[in-house]
Write a structure and sequence with these properties.
The structure holds 2 protein chains of 2 kinds. In chain A, about 70% of the residues lie in helices and about 0% in strands. Chain A is mostly helical. In chain A, helix 6 crosses helix 8, helix 15 packs antiparallel against helix 16 and helix 16 runs antiparallel to helix 17. Chain A is elongated and about 75 Å long. By secondary structure, chain B is an alpha+beta fold. In chain B, a hairpin with a 2-residue loop joins strand 3 and strand 4. Classes of the chains: A mainly alpha, B alpha+beta.
């Protein structure tokens, strides 16, 4: 019940006391106090206002007690009195934006940015974040403590970036949201292939960002991409929890309402005339969701879009995906030629999907021995259990 | 305001242009432009190149015994060749200035916040 207020509360208190770590602890304490008081005394008229007020008192109390931070307290008092500088953003949103931009600052360790955002913005506990990324809880706790210390020591400002810095800083924020989603969509560790809670958190973040930053086409595009991808969630797992590939999914189980919303967002973003990597990926996802059956997929359009995506994201993985699209529109031999030119890349050699894609193309070309070798190469990289089950099944059915 | 020390890592001394050459003049001009802009903006406190790492002596005291090692504390491929001390509102501003230095383009600049040490007389009692 507190998660809906967490982001706003941590943001407001951080601005008031000038320290993210103190603010986050204080909001945590305020939630505990609410749990104790509200059932007996009734829920206050403004739960959010109560939480922020209570947390602010707790934070200032703590700063007061810590004499060595005497200067910080004085600073907090001054900031409270001082009028807030106008930044040109919609009123009431500055603190929330400042918080997520701080948590996703490029000067922080990338893994810590994801954890810090889930903790400070989404309100997940350290234990939940550790479980989501399959690391021991003390490791995650240490990572978060280090990141918060760096924010304080390095003087990372709690504010919305200047317009000039916005494109780079926004891309760091979107990257974090995207990473939260991909970890949920195709979990790299553990035995479950999909972690719906992480997908939900990522969509919630993207939705909030889209509301805070209307008119930023990449934000809209990312939200569209996540909705179009997540719409297939139920169809992606077979009865035994194994992976069902796009071509074999029961399209009747796709979430049509999410697809409609996602498609509308892609159109809305592209009309702004500032394309980017997320918008193009969303357009690709829309090509799939627009096909009534796998055989109706417009692979020529998808191959073109991947070609476009390479100019924004020149990664071998994008090239590999383009190869698959070319194979679908021009035949497996054409795709295999492209795939084999990129498969020399050492980053790709460790990517099971490359070997799976090669195996499928070789299979369609009737080159059985090479296909089996490629399936085995994918298995050797120890993908998650459900994906292993899928591969074992593919090697049996011929 | 926070003080930030830019530690400038770049080419070893023997790969730097010779004084008097056209390349040396260009390098000097680039440095003067970058640090001049910092001074003009009022953020520059100090800057200087250092003698080569070979001139360094590393001091450590263990169990009351002072150990001296010839050379820099860490042997790395790039040489720590100079520093720039600025005072900025926050890290973003410091990073923006760091990126204007020639060392950021041909080598690397490490940005380290400086701890503000209260002078003994100003320390609160107790």
């Amino acid at each position: 019940m507190f998660r809906a207020h967490w982001w706003a509360a941590v943001a407001a208190v951080t601005r008031q006391v000038g320290d993210l770590e103190v603010a986050e602890d204080a909001v945590q304490d305020a939630c505990a106090a609410a749990l104790a008081q509200w059932p007996a005394e009734g829920v206050p008229a403004s739960p959010r206002g109560w939480l922020i007020g209570t947390a602010r008192h707790k934070a200032l109390d703590r700063l007061r007690r810590e004499a060595r931070r005497a200067d910080k307290e004085a600073e907090a008092m001054r900031e409270e009195a001082a009028p807030r500088p106008a930044t040109g953003w919609a009123a009431g949103t500055d603190d929330e934006l400042a918080l997520i931009f701080t948590c996703c600052h490029p000067a922080l360790d990338p893994a810590a940015r994801v954890g810090l955002t889930l903790r400070c913005v989404c309100g997940l506990t350290t234990a939940e974040i550790a479980a989501a990324f399959v690391v021991p809880e003390p490791t995650m706790a240490q990572r978060l403590v280090r990141a918060k210390r760096k924010i304080r020591q390095a003087g990372i400002a709690f504010r919305v970036p200047r317009r000039a810095d916005l494109p780079a800083r926004l891309s760091a924020v979107l990257r974090v949201v995207y990473l939260v989603f991909t970890e949920g969509h195709l979990a790299t560790g553990g035995d479950s292939l999909i972690r719906g809670d992480l997908c939900d958190q990522a969509i919630r973040l993207a939705r909030a960002l889209a509301a805070l930053l209307p008119g930023e086409p990449e934000v809209t595009g990312l939200l569209g991409l996540l909705l179009l991808t997540d719409a297939r969630r139920d169809a992606r797992l077979g009865p035994a929890g194994d992976l069902v590939l796009l071509a074999e999914q029961d399209r009747g189980r796709w979430d049509r309402a999410m697809i409609a919303e996602g498609e509308a967002l892609v159109g809305q973003a592209l009309r702004l005339g500032r394309p980017g990597a997320y918008q193009i990926q969303a357009a690709i996802a829309a090509c799939h969701s627009g096909a009534a059956a796998a055989a109706d997929t417009d692979w020529r359009e998808i191959a073109l879009l991947y070609g476009e995506l390479i100019s924004y994201e020149p990664s071998p993985m994008v090239a590999a995906n383009r190869a698959v699209a070319v194979a679908m529109s021009e035949g497996p031999a054409a795709g295999l030629v492209i795939l084999d030119t990129v498969s020399g890349d050492t980053r790709l050699a460790r990517w099971p999907q490359l070997h799976i894609a090669r195996a499928e193309l070789l299979r369609r070309l009737g080159r059985r021995a090479e296909a089996v070798a490629a399936y085995e190469a994918a298995l050797a990289l120890e993908p998650p259990a459900p994906e292993r089950a899928y591969l074992a099944r593919r090697m049996r059915e011929w | 305001m926070v003080k930030y020390l830019f530690l400038l890592y770049g080419r070893p001394e023997d790969q730097l242009p010779e004084p008097g050459t056209e390349e040396f003049g260009r390098m000097l001009a680039e440095w003067q432009a970058a640090t001049g802009a910092m001074a003009h903006a009022g953020v520059l406190l100090d800057c200087a190149p250092l003698q080569p790492p070979a001139a360094a002596t590393t001091v450590s005291v263990r169990d009351g015994e002072t150990l001296l090692t010839d050379g820099p504390a860490a042997e790395i491929k790039e040489h720590f060749g100079g520093y720039t001390l600025v005072e900025c509102a926050d890290l973003d501003q410091a990073l923006t200035w760091a990126a204007t230095l020639p060392a950021a383009h041909e080598g690397k600049v490490e940005v380290r916040p400086v701890v503000e040490v209260v002078a003994p007389a100003e320390q609160p009692a107790g």
